[in-house]
């Protein structure tokens, strides 16, 4: 017998459909309905609420083989499928993370196809693979942030069994795995949760109605979130989660849901005997997010730091529009690299108010912040999804890499960045509902037309070609300047791993020098100096020693080192050179 259970406090009657046969369910006082039914291990099933004959998928469905509108299927992980019993795991702090979208990472766009690229990632030197959302969402392809069945694995990627194979293969190669989880909103296609119970609150965020984590009857919704998060790490052996836009999780209770998740994740890590990490995406610049719970914080392991991205990108590229408005100077870059946040209780012209709070660099290591030169957001949310590689020189891309990978922060790459991929990463979707498809395409064009873009230039998210052109072109990897840039990325990552001075996480030990007019900046980390020339013209930088890695042709001068325009050099002090 199999016990089927569903939390559904709203309907007066719930029936279980197993392979087309209806069974009555019994309700308990807590709003849960249960029934014991003889069912095969892979039986299709769903729930019928009140007098509506529609069979709805299980809110906690493990598998949706026919999409988010169809019946669920029973699924349990096969213990025999795992071979990672010796995997000890590791924390993400100080690591190099590789963010990828399963559907565009390979031509096939599946978990199994991604396995074939893992040896490449090992050779690159990364420590973790971060998968953009793999939960079930409407349609065949999309970014995954409009998920509606959070417990199920997107079937076109290969479903749950293929995800098990991918994570097991990663662990076999020494790679950790992080899964991007979205708990701040639900997608518009296939969201049946409100029919079951009060999953949504009276509030809203930019992506739709907010999740009920603090209103009446929120306890079971919070449990729904917590159990889903823990399941990725227990059932699927993930080494942690990236939590999408946590600033949209409005929690007015005394114990914030992130603090609760942090505590339960630590307890799970203790039981499993391996570290588990939680990385939060937040635009609040609030260090309480990454402050330990016993010090009054929420206990996240780390957070994405968009200030670092904005400071690097705008200083190198010269872009100053929108949220780049306060950045762009070498001084702003130096301030951000030294202090972690640029806006730390200071006025933000983009927000028209003060923003952020200072980071206590004496107690919070830099490795709790992630440094990156681009992410899926910073590419895909541009009007035409253009990468920096489509607008900058290879030298500028190399400088950006040196600034991020040479910094004291935990580093993250976005797939293809390491060779300067020419593929855009555009916003794409495949909503099966014609009205939703049309609204998505029209809304995207309208949004960017309001910011001065020609609407005809904005790719149609629903056009399959938008998805196809966003796939990586792997034949570029060893081609000319692409291959040269890849070699620099490999060398920078190797230096991070092999040199203790470059593994020092404390920002108080970082010295940053710069010249605004000459447009150079130097990060000094122990015996090493990472010197970067952001300008087009050659510049003399006051660093001396042996060049251990460079882009361009640095030359020793009487006053230091001459750097070509758009170049960098990692220089080791002569007194410590073996």
TrEMBL record:
Subcellular location: Cytoplasm
Residues the record marks as active site: 244, 281
Top-rank taxon, per record: Bacteria
Keywords: Carbohydrate metabolism, Cytoplasm, Glycosidase, Hydrolase
GO molecular function: 4-alpha-D-(1->4)-alpha-D-glucanotrehalose trehalohydrolase activity
BP GO terms, sorted: trehalose biosynthetic process
Pathway membership, UniProt: Glycan biosynthesis; trehalose biosynthesis
Stated name of the protein: Malto-oligosyltrehalose trehalohydrolase
Organism: Mycolicibacterium rutilum (Mycobacterium rutilum)
